[in-house]
Amino acid sequence: MSRILFALALLVSFSASAQETIKIGLITALSGQSARAGEAITRGLAVAIDELNAKGGALGRKFELVRRDDEATPAKGVIAARELLFKEKVAVLFGGLDTPVSLAIVPIVNEAKMPFMGPWAAGTPITKNGAKDNFVFRVSAVDEIVDRAMLQYSQRTFNAKNCGMILVNNPWGESNEKGLTAALNAKGMKAAGIEKFEGNDVDVVPQLTRLKAAGADCLFLVGNVGPSAQVVKSLDRMGWKPPIVSHWGPAGGRFTELAGPSAPSVHFVQTYSFFGKLSPVGEKVLKALMAKYADVKGPGDVTPAVGVANAYDAMMLTALAIQAAGKLDGPAVRDGYYKIGRYDGLIKTYNKPFTPEVHDAVTENDYVWTQFIDNQILPVGMKK
Predict the structure, then answer these.
(1) CB burial of residue 3 (10 Å; 0-12, 13-18, 19+)
(2) Are 117 and 311 in contact (CB under 8 A)?
(3) In sequence order, what are the beta bridge partners of 267?
(4) CB atoms inside a 10 Å sphere around CB 317
(5) Which strands, in side-by-side order, build the sheet including 163-168?
(6) How many CA atoms lie within 13 A of 69 on its CB side?
(7) Which residues contact 203 (CB under 8 A, 6 or more apart)?
(8) Cβ atoms 136, 110 nearer than 8 A
(9) Structure confidence by residue, pLDDT tens digits, 66-122
(10) Count of CB atoms situated within 10 Å of the CB of 228
(11) CA 217/CA 240 separation, integer angstroms
């Protein structure tokens, strides 16, 4: 009888082990002005996980998403990272909507030798962090690449010759100041001026006045939703309407509500749009979003699309890395990213997206320029 009980105990133990999930951690802003972006990342991951689990998951186990709200605060992001890594035992950590939060998490994951995948924050030093053993990957924009694209777009679209910078005063702003300066220097140009603002400023007229006096014929804007909206409102108070070429900060939340009627004047970069003719993967993901979320009736309801698209592709690539690793050991999964070959994704078809030297899967050829039209993010020139 004891042998039968022992055998049953082994069977139950084996069954429980077989059913154990692969936990994917997510740290992002789930409250505050950028909560919409955090929800978009969540939805991209959720749709990808549903699709993967329907096919059996990876390594014979289903995926499970575990989220934490960092409230766009580095200190809270660090606490959440430690909890997800060491208590929840996640296999891969996703997150860092804000560059300062991501930069605070980077040393922790590199020390723990656990993969960290960024689906949003674009600060160049996140992946190029100088670590000898680098565990940080990204499927998102990269500042130094976006900055070159911003300069090209300002020249091509607005014939700009003397752009000024208006940047948030934090590590993300610093990253873009370096990138924009390098992009300008490469063309023998200099900025009309470089001005900074704090994330809680409600008026930036003094900074903008100095840029106007310096002869700026366009503005390079870098800031998240709230601060970017204050720049637009300050321009309205001045009655000055220069072209605004922005990083993707305005896409992260209630920009049109906060910026007012001049919100459409901001042209900003994205990695994907659900408008226009979609690829088979795009049609599949949009259909899945509409089936899973009652508020998604069409492309205009997937906002910001970049959060969904980056997270979806990043999760699919992560599943391939885990499968290639053959186990959930951190270094093995890290090396699994290097083993990915071709994958037909939402943003593009990836072909060996990661190498030990390159941890960013999205390049300058993968950007879309957009603006807000009637509270929807549309490719520039496209009518609703």
Answers:
(1) exposed
(2) no
(3) 245
(4) 23
(5) 194-197, 163-168, 218-222, 244-246, 266-270, 368-373, 376-379
(6) 9
(7) 230, 234, 237
(8) yes
(9) 999 999 999 999 999 999 999 999 999 999 788 999 999 999 999 999 999 999 998
(10) 30
(11) 11
